[in-house]
Amino acid sequence: MSRYFNQLIPSSIGTVVDEAGRCLMIQRTKEPYIGKWAMPGGKIELGEHPEAAIVREFEEETGLVTCVDRFAGVVSEVVPVQGGLSHFLMYVFRLNIVGGELRESEEGPLRWMAQGEIRDEGIPSDAFITSQLIFCDTPDAPRLLSLTSTNEGYQVDGLYR
């Protein structure tokens, strides 16, 4: 059973994009989605601002010190799990590297991935999230995504501007 069974989990996720247009991704070693590639991030601690959470989590998981380039949006993602639900409320950020040294952590291996690789090897919704929020910075881009996900794919329940 998922450790997030029947819970709402506020979290911050984000990534940096290199000169070749690739995102730094982490391979999940914990449920949900073990073995799939995802944007680094994690739960927001009590009293912590979402921006501080992504900077902290990104450094813990990658060794890189970052600052926020821009707030990209919010994703409400519901994941059915063994007779219940996990509901992730994720603040999404595009980041810039300002220091540190790239290194893997106990959270999982790291890899620079192009959009096609994220689509093929990532958490099903992450290709959609990166394309809609990380790579799209136009005034008409969505800023709130509502998704329902499974291991096989995702359903878009709403895009809000």
From TrEMBL:
Pfam families: NUDIX
Domain Nudix hydrolase: 7-135
Cofactor annotation: Mg(2+)
InterPro entries associated with the record: Nudix_hydrolase, NUDIX_hydrolase-like_dom_sf, NUDIX_hydrolase_CS, NUDIX_hydrolase_dom
Keyword Secreted in annotation: no
Alphabetical keyword list: Hydrolase
Family affiliation: Belongs to the Nudix hydrolase family.
Protein name from the UniProt record: ADP-ribose pyrophosphatase YjhB (NUDIX family)
Species for this entry: Alicyclobacillus cycloheptanicus
